[in-house]
What we know:
Blueprint: H1 3-13, E1 19-27, E2 31-39, H2 41-60, H3 74-78, H4 95-112, E3 119-126, H5 130-148, E4 152-157, E5 163-168, E6 172-174, H6 184-208, H7 217-221, E7 226-232, H8 233-236
Parallel strand pairs: 1-4, 3-7
Antiparallel strand pairs: 1-2, 2-3, 4-5, 5-6
Helix pairs in contact: 2-4, 2-6, 4-6
Amino acid sequence: MDADENRSIKFANANLHNALYLGVLSGDRDVSVVGWLRTTPDALSKAAAAWGEFRQGLHADPALNIRPHDRLRARKLAAGQGRSRGTSGRPGPSKAEKWSYRYVLRRGIDVIAALPGTTVGTACGHGLHATATTDALLKTLARRQAVEETTALAVIRMSSAVTAYHRLTPGLEPTSLDALPYGTAEVDSLLEPAEFVAYCAYRHWARLHNRRLLPNWFPELLPGADGPLEFGSEAASR
């Protein structure tokens, strides 16, 4: 038996889901950023439960008006958008309430840093469309898994309407939601903190490039994050 045959058998017999990557896209026309959580099948439920506890705390917070089924959108929270708790008929939140909604983003990143069995990573595509950045990231992660002689599953939310599913083997193998061996509710719930990571990483990039004066929470709260993996013209010139 030659080395290639032996390697193929190792992959065929391996647990196809040694790891699970859950990623979300953020950015603008100049840069596309993927933020992801890397977890394992054993840790998935624990991580989802920890995020659920964070959400429950938000529902009970008297400074906020976040309901159980609300989706936490990082970009909207950063803008201070949310329901007012007052009864004055004001169409939006007060100045103090806006600050509370913005601070949810920092609170969330703090929780993400401590999610059990979970690590965080980011990738930046300079001058690349979101699809090209995602493809470059998936190929990089697949090569990592090949070196480790393990395989993984990647779920990347490209937009609110498009989510891509791939098995990371020695190559890339597209798959579907129906093929997930995990509870889809748990996977979906952890795409929410992945969005927090993606948007805060994008804010960090924007600040470094003098785009906006924004709180720089990302390196403070997630100093051990993997990356950023960089793709595109700017990355090639370094």
